[in-house]
Write a structure and sequence with these properties.
Layout: H1 3-49, H2 55-59, H3 72-103, H4 108-120, H5 125-139, H6 146-170, H7 174-182, H8 187-215, H9 219-223, H10 257-265, H11 270-304
Helix pairs in contact: 1-11, 3-6, 3-8, 3-10, 4-6, 5-6, 6-8, 7-8, 8-11, 10-11
Length: 307
């Protein structure tokens, strides 16, 4: 190789590095546009609603007077609906993902199931609301309740959890399964002792994405009949009489944070717009807290994995 060839190679490497740098700067610019836009909107919402963020705002019922209105029923309803959503979607989604990836035979039936699961992840949320209205509200007789809302949002995020579970399991090297089978383990023992521990961080990521989507959904909740004004709380899940566990709250009327914000933003008074900004700030904090907890758990799981 002569000197001219060496210079040509160096020029080509320099040109490629220049393109890499330009692409990196373009990606950083795109990232900063999104981050700065969110930061600006979040800061404006926080500044606008800061005057209403006090103890009474969190412990007061909604009111027709903006100064005395609070979000007590909204944040309590949001937490209860998210509990039902997680309890219904996460176990079912993870189990379905494990079955499709580790147990189901590879034939045209499973191919159709995989295609439909992937397509369901992109279906508009209003479609799930209409489905839940006919199925949970009228057919099963759950009514306009916390249970109906939780199951509706559970259906909404179920495809996301299934897809995330399958992709996380696929990322596990095949040698892990082969080593387990070589030691005489069954399929369930392999899944329980190796596949699930190694893929748990990725599965948790899918759950984070699904729950973050569910907590801010409005269309399906409105469709099944969530109340825009409610001045009472559902029954407490834990009572003072044996057996101390109460399930009446599942069939109680409810509202959630997005519905409360929708109610306030539809009013012409400026004071209600301030309330909506404060409620939006709280909703973002709830989402960040939920995601932060899940990310911390994911970090702990990854740190404890030993290959």
């Amino acid at each position: 190789m002569n000197q001219q060839d060496i210079q040509a190679i160096r020029a080509m490497i320099t040109r490629h590095k220049r393109w890499d740098m330009m692409f990196g700067l373009l990606g950083l610019l795109a990232l900063m546009i999104g981050v700065l836009t969110f930061t600006a909107l979040f800061a404006e919402m926080a500044i606008k609603g800061a005057e209403r963020l006090d103890y009474d705002f969190f412990t007061s019922f909604p009111s027709r007077r903006a100064g005395s209105a609070g979000i007590l029923t909204a944040w309590v309803g949001t937490i209860l609906v998210m509990i039902v959503t997680a309890m219904s979607a996460v176990p079912l989604g993870v189990a379905a993902g494990i079955y499709l990836e580790e147990y189901a035979p590879k034939n045209w039936v499973t191919d159709i199931i995989e295609i439909n699961v992937t397509n369901l992840a992109g279906v508009p949320s209003i479609v799930y609301g209409l489905l839940a209205l006919g199925l949970f509200v009228y057919k099963f007789g759950f009514g306009q309740s916390v249970l109906s809302a939780g199951l509706t949002l559970g259906l909404l995020i179920l495809p996301v959890v299934i897809v995330a579970t399958r992709e996380s399991i696929r990322a596990i090297p095949q040698m892990v399964r082969e080593g387990s089978y070589a030691c005489g383990a069954t399929t369930w023992q392999t899944v329980k002792d190796h596949i699930l521990p190694y893929s748990s961080a990725g599965i948790l990521t899918g759950i984070i994405i699904g729950m973050a989507r569910a907590i801010g959904e409005t269309a399906p909740i409105i469709t099944i009949g969530a109340l825009t004004f409610i001045a009472f709380l559902p029954p407490a899940p834990i009572g003072d009489v044996a057996p101390f566990i109460n399930f009446d709250w599942l069939l109680a009327p409810f509202t959630v944070m997005p519905i409360q914000m929708f109610n306030w933003t539809s009013r012409p008074e400026a004071a209600f717009q301030v309330n909506a900004a404060a409620a939006g700030f709280v909703l973002v904090l709830m989402t960040l807290a939920m995601n932060g907890t899940a990310i911390w758990l994911r970090y702990r799981l990854r740190r404890n994995i030993k290959w």
